[in-house]
Design brief:
alpha/beta
């Protein structure tokens, strides 16, 4: 499974980008998109979740 982490302070940008990735069909196969707005939480999330792609 391909894991993507979005880091953005703006709620509307983050949710819009998540929706676009989920409905665009850009990536073949299964993937999970998670969005965060805090860099400290993002660091911990990266260490535990180990995403393949981080978009900040």
């Amino acid at each position: 499974m391909f894991k993507i982490l979005l880091i953005d302070r703006c709620h509307f940008t983050r949710t819009g980008f998540e929706a676009w990735l989920n409905h665009s069909g850009l990536f073949p196969g299964h993937y999970v998109v998670t969005g965060l707005n805090n860099l400290f939480l993002a660091r911990e999330h990266i260490l535990q979740w180990k995403p393949e792609l981080v978009i900040a």
